[in-house]
Amino acid sequence: MPRSREGSPFTGLGPVFMKEFADHLSSARMMVLMLFVIVFGAFPVATSLQTLRTVVDPNSFIFLRIFTLESEQVGISFTAALNFIIPLMAIGLGFDAVNSEFNRRTLSRVLSQPIYRDALLLGKFLGGLATLAVALVALWLIVLGAGLLLLGVPPRGVEVARGLSFLVVAIAYGGVWLAIAMLFSVIFRSTATSALCALGVWLFFFILWPQLAGALLISLAPSEIRSIDDYAAVQSMGLGLMRLSPGTLFSEAVLGLLSPETRTLGPMLPSQMRGAIMGAPLPFDQSVLLIWPQVTGLIAGMIVVFAAAYVIFQREEVRA
Q1: N or C terminus of the chain with fewer C-beta within 10 Å?
Q2: CA 250 distance to own-chain centroid
Q3: Where are the domains of the chain?
Q4: What is the DSSP string of 14-69?
Q5: How far apart are CA 39 and CA 136, in angstroms?
């Protein structure tokens, strides 16, 4: 008869979390990833600040435009750079979270302590997510400090609120890719294989999925579009396919938060624009309601992938 578990399944969660968090922050890998993030994100921010120094309109949400402005010299905004960087950073933190314990023969030793598998896997995930959050908060503060120094004006309260919400969305986006990396770390014993599989999923969604979604839309759409409602339905179908990618959800959530004049993230009929003031910014709470489905999708994706890793990890045999 299998012995039933005693006590909380999260016994030992705190020590596992603190150990993972400390190991990540003190590792050479973290230093390399942070250097890569700062260097890669410095060019869009520097060119954006040089352009924004000529803006004199105090009501133009100038601090938010630091994140979204695409300069002619670089051709990419800071948020677009983060869409590329965050998955790589999350994969770098989680691709060997579990299989490295198998390879070092330390997993059975850890589980022989009063620590259940629930606490071990969740502690590793939360440790990686906290490390990712620290890195993103540091990067956000660097960008904010650079804006204060070079622009010479402080951000308004609504800009700070939108910036903090953007930070939450970025952490949730990183959590999805961290869960994917940990899923492959649970499935494969080889760290190289888990890293390659996680990078393969990232490349699939980043490069191949837009083309596949377009091909699927062509095959599923009706051959003739006879009304504006048919056109809106086809556009909604295309957006639905694209939103299966975490990068699309992140991009839309960032657009709704950091571009206050954005009123919709999908097709809008002329009748829906009746009475709207073009170019007028949405209140902060309305922008949050606009992006709420995207944020919910990111959090749900993170939970589903982590749950899959949890189920597989619970079924694996651990030998000394």
Answers
A1: N
A2: 6
A3: 13-267+278-315
A4: HHHHHHHHHHHHHSHHHHHHHHHHHHHHHHHHHHHHHHHTT---TTS-HHHHHHH-
A5: 14
10-residue averages of pLDDT along the chain (320 residues): 59 84 86 79 76 64 82 76 89 88 76 77 91 90 84 83 92 95 92 92 92 85 72 80 91 90 71 58 88 93 94 76
- HSE-CB at 140 with a 13 A cutoff on CA atoms is 20
How far, in Å, CA of 106 to CA of 119, rounded? 16
Burial of residue 83 (CB within 10 Å: 0-12, 13-18, 19+) is: buried
Strand stretches in the chain, DSSP E: none
d(CA 64, CA 162): 8
The answer to whether 182 and 97 have CB atoms below 8 angstroms apart is yes
Q: Helices 13-26 & 117-151, crossing angle to 10 degrees?
A: 40
To the nearest 10°, report the CA torsion of 130, 131, 134, 136.
-100
CA distance 8 to 23: 25
10 Å CB burial of residue 309 (0-12, 13-18, 19+) is buried
- DSSP codes of every residue in 124-142: HHHHHHHHHHHHHHHHHHH
Contact 158, 284 (CB under 8 A): yes
